[in-house]
Sequence to fold (255 residues):
Amino acid sequence: MTNTGLVLSGGGIRGVAHIGVIKALEEHGIYPTHISGTSAGAIVGSLYAGGVKWEDILEFFKVIPIFHANRFARKKPGFIDTEKFYDEFKKFFPTDKFESLPKELFITATDIVKGELKIFDTGELIKPVLASATFPGVFSPININGSFYVDGGVLNNFPIEPLQLHCDKIIGSYVNALKSIKIKDLKHSYNVLERAYKIKSASESIAKFTKCDFVVSPEELCEYATFDMRSIDAIFDIGYNSTIDVLRKQGYSKQ
Fold:
């Protein structure tokens, strides 16, 4: 039996494009058996691994109140208390265990104290998912067994590694394509610093593309900010249409 892995990058609200990717894959008879995700990819990946339909995952992103005042952190290092999203996920994962999922799932998060990457694939599920999506400085770190975790994308924004051990085929969805710019766009020192960080992150991820059978990485997503909640439908459409184009080039047809 062929195991097909799907790796989903981080990227804030641009991660909604992953949902469009999933829709297009299913329309072409491709149903991944193993999922690896970080940050927004961890959220999409966990819901998909849990058997949630793409339509419901999309609706989840539309209705979850990420910046509601009652989610603000108090006496924690961050503006938003990440743990206050637990109940939203509990509705989808009543058992709260990796072992209860229909698909194999790998979630990455960064130990903010030790500076190490952690791959979660057994035991408690919801906290690792929340930890993986904890954007540093905005959301408060998550305490899991005495260690504090933030966004897995800090150390690995395209976590293909767990899939290589289990899958015959790997498909990638990367939503942080490096935007083309001109030197005049770097007007301030923080622009240069931000650009340098994006180059480093993108180069580390792109180097892994050759290990995938194919990757969907739409450059159009560069136009959308990390927390651009108003553009969910447009981002979803970009993910879907880009995947259709890639699948056509790969020789796949709709079923």
User: Anything to note?
Assistant: The chain is about 35% helix and 15% strand.
